[in-house]
């Protein structure tokens, strides 16, 4: 009986987001992943995100593979005061497609699934002001993604234990397209 109770309690305490095994896109190729992506949808259990969910702007990611196997990511957000830009380096951790982003508090970032040409699903485990949270982003090469990509995104966040009310479909809008900056 004690054993049964203990396992019941452990089952209640078990947090799917922290424990689920998150796989990487096999043979991830950072060069093919480079270029412009739109963030079409996001799911997250971060309190700050949930509090601002209805005011989040459409944003884009201009990605460039680095020689070290990481990514240089330029994020553009359309705000009330125009375009805001944040640059971040995604540093490679072990396998291709597996990163951490110290500047943003992203402890674990994984490209879970992508066909490179239309969609990508990105997993982010992050720390913000001491609070840990899980976020999943759906990227599209355009502001529209296929139903299959949406389904794959939904299956993945549900598997992590994120419910549908923690999901935001970003409104289609004018976006800030980063000017193509060729770095030497
Ligand atoms: C990654 O993709 C690029 C562009 O398609 C290609 O030239 C390169 O050989 C690929 N790298 C690997 C390791 O497959």
UniProtKB/TrEMBL annotation:
Pfam families: Lipocalin. GO terms for molecular function: small molecule binding. Residues 34-174 form the Lipocalin/cytosolic fatty-acid binding domain. InterPro entries: Calycin, Lipocalin, Lipocalin_CS, Lipocln_cytosolic_FA-bd_dom. Transmembrane segments: none annotated. Residues 1-20 form the signal peptide. Keywords: Signal. Belongs to the calycin superfamily. Lipocalin family. PANTHER family: LIPOCALIN, LIPOCALIN-15. This is Lipocalin 15.
């Amino acid at each position: 009986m004690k054993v049964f109770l203990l396992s019941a309690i452990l089952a209640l305490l078990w947090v799917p987001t922290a424990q689920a095994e998150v796989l990487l896109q096999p043979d991830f190729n950072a060069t093919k992943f480079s270029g412009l992506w739109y963030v079409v949808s996001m799911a997250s259990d971060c309190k700050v995100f949930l509090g601002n969910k209805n005011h989040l702007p459409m944003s884009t990611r201009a990605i460039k593979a680095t020689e070290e196997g990481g990514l240089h990511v330029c994020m553009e957000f359309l705000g009330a005061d125009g375009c805001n830009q944040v640059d971040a380096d995604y540093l490679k951790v072990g396998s291709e497609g597996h990163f951490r982003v110290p500047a943003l508090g992203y402890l674990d970032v994984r490209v879970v699934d992508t066909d490179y040409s239309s969609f990508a699903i990105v997993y982010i485990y992050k720390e913000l002001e001491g609070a840990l949270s899980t976020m999943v982003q759906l990227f599209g090469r355009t502001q529209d993604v296929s139903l299959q990509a949406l389904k794959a995104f939904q299956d993945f966040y549900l598997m992590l234990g994120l419910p549908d009310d923690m999901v935001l479909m970003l409104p289609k809008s004018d976006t800030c397209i980063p000017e193509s900056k060729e770095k030497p």
